[in-house]
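hey all, quick one before standup. I had two proteins in the batch that finished overnight and I want to keep them in one place so we stop losing track of which output belongs to which input. First protein below, input sequence then structure tokens straight from the run.
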Amino acid sequence: MYKIVSIPGDGIGPEVVAGAVSVLRQLSKKHSFDIVIEEHAFGGASYDLHGEMLTDATLEACRNCDAVLLGAVGGPKWESLPHEYKPEAALLKIRKELELFANLRPAKVYDALLDASSLKADVVRGTDFLVFRELTGGIYFGQPRGFNENRGWNTMIYELYEVQRIARLAFETAQKRKGRVISIDKANVLEVSQFWRNVVHEVHKDFADVELSDMYVDNAAMQIVRNPKQFDVIVTSNLFGDILSDIAGMITGSLGMLPSASIGTKHALYEPIHGSAPDIAGQNKANPIATIASIAMMFEYSFHKPDIAKEIEQAIEATLAAGFRTSDIANRGDNVVSTKEMTEAIVSHIGT
């Protein structure tokens, strides 16, 4: 039995999470396993109900489940709140409290969506790489931090163990892929990046079968749009990973296509990388594929069922090949479908 905490969140979150839950229930029927899905509020939805973005009850539920599924959080309604009460602050808190130190973001271009990318088809065809973003250290968490009328300041800091553990995870994953890791830093300018590079190279000594190379972050941003097929596994810091993974997302055609996994030693959280898209919330227009693909990552990394993960990915590919498109990935003349219709098509390709 798998116990999953479902956190629909804000905006389009409830719609795309509903799609992922439909896929989960179809898989449970097909493969005869039990799932228990416990829903909790988070972000703006939680603030409206409880006066806080992340309650102790929600956090405790996340600590006592096999995996967390999150939709999206935030929106204009809560932007005027003090910084420490905003949905984004709650995201940082849940990552820290659950010790989710590694964020995994795949960048995969489906053949059926080559025309949806803003890049030429021959540039993106065959792109399939994975970004490992360190998630609980770096400039988002470093102290001191603050601002006044005359200056603002943040501290980018990394501890030895923080770099070691994400580097090791990246190398272990590369062993199961093409065996190449590129570590992204800014070691020519930042001392913390030189430290990062030194530690990654030290960890690499335990992975002689994996090729390691280094790349400065500005060059990496250029290379991702110039020649994305050169990458297999990228490992980088919190800030750089935040930026680069969004760049990688756009070459696939839409952020609505990309899942993510945030993994720690004991806990894991799965979510699409897109935001809450309040402009289309409640209109049955959102693309559920990123959230459904996050379920595939859940089976891969939390439940250790790579065959079921592959089954989900194949169902997505078959649905796209059949011509189904939500508006964010549609070209003129395409068959534009709703969130529910895209979900139903993927469920039908999973079969019984």
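OK second protein, same deal, sequence then tokens:
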Amino acid sequence: MGGVGYDSVKDFYTRCFVGRNAADLSIESLSRTVGDERIVDEMLLTFTHDVEVPWILPGVAATDKKIVIPVIGIVGFEGTAVASEHIYWDQAAVLAQVGLLDTETVQRLPMIASPHALLDGTMATNELVR
């Protein structure tokens, strides 16, 4: 998802991102690391999947399910201009939360379908490896 170069990035933001999010989308900042040429943000993204959200669930009609996922954003700079933006999240957790991964598959994968246990420390990540 996204694009390379001005025209491609503009097209992506216009068609898939700006104005194409759930009404209740919220972003909670968890941490920020600032360097000379880069900012790294750890965030918690929460929304109700009440509309198609092409950048995260392309082609998936609204399910009215609540989605909660940790997201990492890395923004690179050249001088004062944004040179790059990379955003990472666990897509399997998104698919599980909207019901597109069956329970058996979710239980077999080393993943956390909802991040609350991971973020509040009640689940150790080493428990994911059986």
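Flagging for whoever picks this up: The chain is about 20% helix and 30% strand. Strands lie at 26-34, 38-48, 66-78, 81-89.
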